[in-house]
Amino acid sequence: ARTAAVAAYRAGLTADGAAGLPTAADVVPDPDAERADFDALLTAAEEQAWPLVSFTFGLPAADVFARLAAAGIPAGATVTDATEARAALDHGAAFLVVQGHRAGGHRGTSDPAAEPTRAEMPTVLAAVRDVVGTGAASAMPVVAAGGVGTAEDVRALLTAGADAVAAGTAFLLTPEAGTSAAHRAAV
User: Fold this and answer.
1) pLDDT tier for residue 21 given thresholds of 50, 70 and 90
2) Which of the 8 DSSP states describes residue 150?
3) What gap in Å lies between CA 100 and CA 121, rounded to an integer?
4) Read out DSSP for 65-117?
5) Which of the pair, 65 or 139, is modelled with greater confidence?
6) CA quadruple 40, 145, 85, 133: dihedral positive or negative?
7) pLDDT digits (tens, 9 = 90+) for 88-122
8) Euclidean distance between CA atoms 176 and 187, whole angstroms
């Protein structure tokens, strides 16, 4: 039965492919188009006076942060360790989102080939705070994210040095999320 099910699935995919699914040539990145799209988004942020911009899965050049700052738009970056925090600070980030290893399904690391830290969030927060400073010594807000599911998690992260806490996966169980039954069961 399993072999027949796989064969039927394959036949369906083959039929879909014959109907015009994208080929590898259709999905090859176009760096010029991507740069133009990115610049259009920056222009929209400036023209519409977005309240903030945040970057994940990479760190834009310092001139991007400078451009947004000149428009009065704080721009931040997702970081997963102190090295990434230092780079974001050097590029001009106005705030950091520190993402822990318990983030749901992905990590916002800047280097996809690197093995992200498995350190718990309080340890990562402490290392990032060593880079950006604490209290009056730092004007850089730090938001903790990743694996936040309870009020106790929020309190612990605020105590560990976060200025704010972001929750994501926990909200997949709310009625507004529209999460499928299978996904809800997995969460």
Assistant:
1) low
2) S
3) 5
4) HHHHHHTT--EEEEESSHHHHHHHHHHT-SEEEEE-TT-SS----S-TTS---
5) 65
6) positive
7) 999 999 999 998 877 766 666 777 777 777 888 88
8) 15
